Amino acid sequence: MTVVAAVVRSTRVRPRSAADLLAEAVARAGLWERLAERAGGDPAAVPVLLTPGASAYGDPATAVGTALVEHLIDLLYDRGYHDVTVGAARCGPDTWLAGPGLLEACRLLGYRERTPRGNAYRLVDLSAEVEPAEFPESAVLHGSGMARSWLEAGFRINIAKNCTHPEFGYALCLANLFGVLPQDDKHHHYRARRDGAEVLVDLLGAYPPDFHLIDAVVSSHGCAGAQVGRPLRTDTVIAAPDGVLADLVGALLMGVDPVSSPLNARVLSDRGLPDAYRIDGDLTPYPGWRNPPRSLVEAVRRLAPDGRAHRLFSIAAWQVAPGTTEVTDPALARLSRLLTALIRAADTNPAATATLCAMVGAAASASSTVRAWRTGNAKDALRRRDVSLAVDPAAYTHQDFDRITALLRPLETVIDALPADAWQMRWQHVGHSILFGCERTVNAPYPEFVRRVDISRSISYMTDYLGGRVHVVTRDDQGRPTRQIERNLYLAQPNYLAYYGGPPIDVCKLESVDYGERRQRISWRTVRSPNGSAAYDDGSVVFLPADGGARTRIVVRVRQRFTLPLTWQVFRPETRPKLRDPLVQDSYQRFFTRTLDNFEAQYEGRPYRIGRPWEEFDDLEAAELPTQRLTEAARLVRTVASQALTQTLTVPTPPGRLGPDGFWHVAPGDVPTRSPLLGEFREALRPAVTGFWAGLREAAARDRRSRQAP
Fold this sequence. Notes:
Helices cover about 40% and strands about 20% of the residues. With about 700 residues, it is of the alpha+beta class. The protein folds into 2 domains: about 290 residues, 3-Layer(aba) Sandwich (Rossmann fold); about 220 residues, START domain (Alpha-D-Glucose-1,6-Bisphosphate, Chain A, domain 4, 2-Layer Sandwich), CATH 3.30.530. A hairpin with a 4-residue loop joins strand 16 and strand 17. It is globular. It starts with a strand and ends with a helix.
């Protein structure tokens, strides 16, 4: 079936109402035919769910028009679809600012659960009544739930506002789907803990909408149209059964590249456009439309989504309607007023644009520097990542896994023939990749070692492992994985490349696992790097008995080729082997020495993983904003100043007591040794100071142990 994207516009020659635009758009895009096919002759048996964007505290400039939604409900009623629910899709910062609540915000927008024609509908919060959802194991949303109304809907219609976005460039149907996900804190769960594009890919694969609409009757454009309303009458309605196609049309009407949004680029890459489609309508860009400056978009994207600077910008950039919220964070309120004022002015004032870009750019640079420092010096402060498998398991046959060992054998023969250095490590440049091998014999009985150290999890034992996902394809009679697909994330290697913009290493691998009586082996081959960080990351790990089984020998062989940051590509290290080779040798020695240490730690039951699990931040009170600390600091300063002023204005009472002889008698305990305020400061700072020195001593001890390894 050919998928039609309908673009219906009102013009000066032929002016039309929003209701007429909607009716023609859905008819030309085939909504009624698809509904009839789903109904099978009984429209009353199909529960229809509408999910219009309703964000920004009831600000109609950034929300889908209520009249448009209710007119669609009337059209549904006219064709016998009387079971209609409006599921509120909200992406705003409700968890940080005390707002009117989601359903109350919808009522402020005009939703009364009955259309002007008297047709009733239900209004539900898609964050309520969450039930388990059947996302596959390969999905980043595996284990997550969805609202019952979304799961049980017979037909889902996604309705997005036509608006710009300071990070994505534009935010249409795909971006609106964040609002249908159940967690209140969308940023925490679907932008920081998980990659937003992967979340959308998994949602579209498991529980997709059946139809998409874009309300472009009155759009919101400018630097941040999705957050700070700047209305522009564009008199257009876009309709399509496919959200990617609808967004492509919407982006073309804005005059931007459809793949300029990282969300749409990823979904287009993974799912693509329909096999057969056509665009029915005029794609002339909107007159007077303003897109966000490219410099602003790039600066916002440099803010890592899992960092507090990104969260702070995402929250502060929302326009809080006066009188509808009581701000609980005064510092955040002031920052929000400043930022929204700059966003409004930046659309017409070049100086405001430069100021806004400079502010966000400075925050992005500081955030990048902090993250780079943590990559090399404070890895436990980093957060681990939840990711999808990023490949389709059905795309590979058993023969693809069974060929891995044979493909690696010639490379392993070369590695074994290379001379070993003092650390029993072998390495050599071959083309633009590196062949590397190392081994270690540990004082652990072989039977006990292979019982405690699962060979199939070898990738996750490697140093600087940030997270990943494993999909087991086949198991042996004992339930052990024999063929599996794994996606792995590591910190930038070497770690100092993070200062030059080096991305984390992100690779997807096919893996084959063998369990012999006298040998266990895992072999892997890279099939994809989602962020382009690696061309090759193939290899194997083998466990062998040593000294008759009294000890265990670990052998690692790899072929690797990682993508260097642009600065290093310009430098061309391959033309300076005298400088390159010591750096390569040092980085491989550090990485694999710590990796072999991790195998021993796994055997001994010692912790070795870097980063902090996200469960530690699921409590919103723990994931506080920087402005909250600033507010607390200001409150403390005011308290100290007030106490100091009180002490200054109050006549001090001498210590001790007045005796009958007219003299003051003072004992040693009567004279305070220090100010109570200084005591409070000292006690507040004590944990941080002692924790710093304790951490420094532990880090120094770990360095000594790693350098003492043979």
